[in-house]
Request: fold
Amino acid sequence: MTKDIEAPPAAYSRAMPNLSLDQVEAIARRAHAGQTDKAGRPYVEHLRAVAEGVRARGGSDEQIAAAWLHDAIEDDALSPQWLAAAALPQQVKDIVLALTKRPGEDLAAYTARILAVPGARLVKEADLAHNADPDRLAVLDEPTRTRLTTKYAHVRELLGLTSG
Reply:
C-alpha cells in the first residue's frame, strides 16, 4: 500500500529546485516507516546501508538519492506518479525505475535493464552487498539463506560483478 506522501503538481516540481539528499532520506524514511526486512529489522536500516555503500564506492549524489529510493516503487511505499512528479534529477528517477523489479520479470531482463541505465549498476552492487551480508543472512532459516545466497550470486554474475 502506497504511503500518503503526495506528489507535487508537475508544474510545481519543474519550477522548484531538486530535493536535497537530506530531503530524499526523510521521504524514504517516512515512506518505509513500519516496514521490516526478512529478518524483522527496520527496513530503513537497509536503505541507509545501501546509500552508505554507494557513497563508499564513490557514487554521485544522484546515485545516493536513488539508493534511498531504490525499493520505494517496488514495495509500494511511493507511487510511480510520485516519482515522475518529484523534484529529482532524471538520472535518479531512471535509476530507481531500473532497479524496480516488475511482476513476472526474469532476472536476465531485470539485470539487462540495470546495465542499460547509467549509474544503476553501482546502486545495485551496494544493494546486493548489503543483502548478502553474512550477518544479515545468518538470522534467516537455512532454506531461505541458501535460496537468497544463490540468487544474489546469480544477479552479481549477470551484472558482471566480481565476488567480494
About this structure: The chain has ten helices and no strands.
